[in-house]
Design a protein that fits this description.
This protein has 356 residues and is of the alpha/beta class. Helix content is 41%, strand content 27%. Helix 2 runs antiparallel to helix 3.
Length: 356
């Protein structure tokens, strides 16, 4: 019997369980904060009693019931403390460690980031008041436009507004459970865009690509399930959160890869922005789009993005970003002309954008 080997294996399991407990405790507190946005009072004695009664029934024979009760009383107290702090939440799509979360942290570091399963869930959370903010990717230098986000804005007639934007560097890392055994890697899981952006590295090393719903989710999966000879492509933040080794960083095909993220909210901001976003559609006639764009050219307003998407049979809507503030007189005048020249027009927001 190799006692040292057995002990090492047991301790590895304990470390894994401890990390999972920490993640679950954080997830519990995140849900407590979400609940605080929709309930009338922070303290709910009846619910706490029901939880303690449930714990008493399920505590088992190994650990004393009073031990569990003390743990949960501490959890209740910590939940109340957090709920009373008035913390502001920002929803993002993906698991913790996603690039969207990194962008959220860089946009405003005192926010609590909450993972969502989809872009639609981010929108809905902001609309319903669960989150003060949401952060969403709109375009990537390699992968292009995120069309689903544009579609959500089209469907969101009177809810959220854009209040900020940030351009986040995307540096993909190859993550594995054991750096000493990296030569065993045969498969790599990640989001389809990340796999595409790292195609050269994967082909050069004869690694099989496997699509997964999220980069950070792939990192979490290999950390928890430890599939044989399987790695993930994700961020350095994901490596730290899920206790994975960075085998190689910056493995993307082209250096300088960036994603532009926008920040949404139900509330307007008072500060003077430096960029604006609008949606509009024009009659289906020759020259109508040119006429709208000419308004900006004549006002010497710099356009930074224009994207089109279908909005009905034979019709298109246009998303347009331009430099300037809505508080500037020439911008106000140009927007008035645009509204008069279009059959549909919506101002999405004036905000500050920065690049990292």
């Amino acid at each position: 019997m190799d006692k040292e080997k057995i002990l090492r294996s047991i301790r590895d399991n304990i470390d894994y369980i401890d990390n999972k407990i920490l993640r679950l405790l954080n997830e519990r507190m995140e849900n407590a904060l979400r609940a605080s946005k929709v309930k009338d009072e922070v303290e709910d004695k009846n619910r706490e009693k029901r939880i303690l009664d449930n714990i008493a029934r399920k505590s088992g024979n190994l650990i004393d019931e009073e031990f569990f009760e003390e743990i949960y009383k501490s959890l209740f107290e910590e939940s109340r403390t957090l709920q009373n702090k008035g913390l502001k939440l920002i929803g993002f799509q993906g698991a913790h460690g996603a690039y969207s979360e990194m962008a959220a942290n860089n946009w405003k570091e005192d926010l609590v980031s909450i993972p969502c399963d989809s872009f639609a869930e981010v929108f809905e959370g902001v609309e319903d008041g669960l989150y003060e903010y949401g952060i969403l990717p709109v375009e990537n230098t390699l992968g292009g436009v995120v069309g689903e986000v544009n579609e959500l804005f089209m469907d969101n007639e009177n809810g959220v507004k854009i209040i900020g934007a940030i351009e986040q560097p995307i540096e993909h890392c190859l993550l594995y459970v054991d750096a000493d055994k990296f030569r065993d890697i045969r498969k790599v899981y990640s989001h389809s865009q990340a796999l595409s952006q790292c195609k050269n590295f994967l082909e050069r090393n004869n690694l099989e690509s496997v699509n997964y719903y999220d980069t950070a989710g792939a990192a979490q999966m290999i950390s928890e399930e430890k599939p044989e000879a399987t790695a993930a492509i994700a961020s350095s933040l994901a490596a730290d959160l899920y206790d994975l080794e960075i085998i190689k960083d910056n493995i993307e095909n082209v250096q300088g890869n960036k994603t532009r993220f926008i920040v949404i909210s139900k509330e307007k901001i008072d500060e003077k922005g430096d960029k604006c976003t609008i949606i509009f559609s024009t009659p289906h006639k020759a020259g109508t789009l040119f006429n709208v764009l000419s308004i900006f050219a004549e006002a010497d307003i710099n356009l930074t993005r224009i994207e089109s998407m279908p909005s009905g049979t034979g019709n298109y809507s246009f998303f347009l970003d331009f430099m300037g503030s809505k508080k500037d007189e020439k911008v106000q005048k140009a927007l008035e002309e645009v509204e008069e020249s279009t059959q549909y027009y919506r101002f999405l927001g004036c905000y500050k954008e920065r690049s990292l």
